[in-house]
Design brief:
- This protein is α/β, with parallel strands linked by helices and 344 residues long.
- The chain contains ten helices and eight strands.
- The chain has a five-stranded mixed β-sheet.
- α2 runs antiparallel to α4, α4 runs antiparallel to α5 and α5 runs parallel beside α10.
Length: 344
C-alpha cells in the first residue's frame, strides 16, 4: 500500500509540474517516500507530507497558472484526501505490528493471515478508495487528460466460486483476481461488475458491482444518474452492446442528451493480454498496467481465498463465495493504479 501512497504523491507532483510548466514557476518539491521496512518512519513521512502541502499552498502555483478560484478548493480537497489516506495507514501500521505477514499485501504478493485482519482494512479502505478514484478522474478531466464525451459501458458476470477442486499440486485453477474474464460463464450466483470507460484514454471512469446474475439492462439508468451525481454531466456518446439498449434505455439516453451507439465490436482480439488457457485481461479496462502487475494481482486472489476457506472451516475443495465488498476492493485497486500511472 506504500506504493499506492507514493504513486499518488508522485502523480500529484508531476501532474502539477506538467500542467503548469508554462508559468515558469520554480518550486522545490520535497522528496517523500514511505519505507515499509521501517515502521517508525511514519512520523517523518507525515511531517514531509505536510511540508509538501505548505510549499504548494504558499507558492500560489494554482493562482499563477490562471486557474479559476473554484479549482483551488478542488485541489485542497485532493490534498485532504491524501491526508485521510495517511490516517488509514496509521491504523494499518498498528495491525502490521500485530501481524507482520499482512505487510506483504503492499507488494501484491504474499499471504493475508486472516479474513478478520483483511476485513477491517477493507471496510475502511473502500469508501476512501472510491473518493480517491473520483478525485483522480476529476483532476484528469480538469487538465484535459481524459474526457467525458465518448464513454463505453460494459458489464461482466463473475462467478461466485472458483473451480470446485484443486489440481494435483493442490492449487485452484481459477486465476480471476477481479480483473479478468473468461469466454463463458455458468449462470450461477455471482456478481455483475459494470464499468464506464473513457474511450480516448482507455481509462476507467466509474464502476459498480451488482449481486446475482441479473440482466445488465435495468442497471444502465442508475449507473448514468450516479455518474452525473459524481461528475456533474452526462457523456455525449455512450457505446455499448445490445444488452444495454432496451427501448426504455434508449429513450432515457435521448431525453438526457446522450447519444447511444451500438458497438458490439469494441473488444477485439488485439485488446487482450493472454495470461493462460482461456483467461485474458482487457487492456482497455486497465490502461497502462504491465503484465507483471496484472499477474501479481492474479496470484494474490486465489491465495487469499484458500486461506479464507481454511479459517472459515470450508472444505479444501470449496473456496468461499466472493463477497461484493471483496470484489469491489480489487476493482477499485485496479482503477486507482491505472489512473495514477496514466500520466507517468
Amino acid at each position: 500500500m506504500s506504493n499506492t501512497v507514493n504513486s499518488a504523491l508522485d502523480f500529484l507532483r508531476d501532474s502539477l509540474l506538467k500542467v503548469h510548466k508554462k508559468t515558469n514557476t520554480s518550486i522545490d518539491f520535497p522528496e517523500i517516500t514511505l519505507d515499509m521496512d521501517n515502521l517508525y518512519s511514519l512520523p517523518v513521512f507525515k511531517g514531509r507530507l505536510e511540508d509538501l502541502f505548505r510549499v504548494i499552498d504558499s507558492s500560489g502555483l494554482l493562482k499563477k497558472a490562471g486557474l479559476p478560484y473554484g479549482d483551488i478548493p478542488f485541489f485542497k480537497a485532493y490534498a485532504a484526501m491524501i491526508k485521510c489516506d495517511i490516517r488509514i495507514f496509521e491504523r494499518l501500521y498498528l495491525e502490521l505490528e500485530e501481524n507482520s505477514r499482512f505487510s506483504h499485501v503492499c507488494d501484491f504478493e504474499g499471504y493475508i493471515s486472516s479474513p478478520r485482519t483483511f476485513g477491517r482494512f477493507r471496510e475502511r479502505a473502500i469508501p476512501c478508495m472510491e473518493k480517491l478514484r473520483d478525485l483522480l478522474v476529476k483532476w484528469l478531466n480538469k487538465i484535459n487528460a481524459i474526457s467525458f464525451r465518448v464513454v463505453a459501458i460494459d458489464g461482466k458476470f463473475k462467478r461466485s466460486n472458483t473451480y470446485a477442486y484443486p489440481d494435483e499440486n493442490g492449487c485452484y485453477s481459477d486465476v480471476d483476481s477481479g480483473l479478468c474474464f473468461k469466454g463463458t460463464y455458468k449462470r450461477e450466483l455471482g456478481y455483475i461488475d459494470m464499468k464506464l470507460i473513457d474511450v480516448a484514454s482507455e481509462q476507467p471512469l466509474y464502476s459498480v458491482v451488482f449481486p446475482g446474475n441479473r440482466h445488465e439492462s435495468p442497471f444502465l439508468q442508475g449507473l448514468m444518474e450516479d455518474f452525473h451525481h459524481r461528475y456533474g454531466c452526462y457523456p455525449l456518446f455512450l457505446l455499448g452492446d445490445k444488452a444495454f439498449f432496451s427501448f426504455e434505455n434508449v429513450l432515457y439516453c435521448i431525453v438526457r442528451g446522450i447519444i447511444p451507439v451500438l458497438d458490439s465490436k469494441k473488444v477485439k482480439a488485439d485488446d487482450l493480454i493472454k495470461v493462460g488457457s482461456n483467461h485474458h485481461y482487457r487492456k482497455c479496462m486497465f490502461g497502462k498496467f504491465t503484465e507483471d502487475v496484472l499477474n501479481a494481482l492474479t496470484r494474490l486472489r486465489p491465495a487469499c481465498e484458500r486461506l479464507f476457506s481454511r479459517e472459515e472451516k470450508y472444505s479444501q475443495a470449496r473456496p468461499p463465495s466472493r463477497t461484493l465488498k471483496r470484489a469491489r476492493f480489487w476493482s477499485l485497486m485496479a482503477e486507482i493504479v491505472s489512473l495514477m500511472t496514466y500520466l507517468a
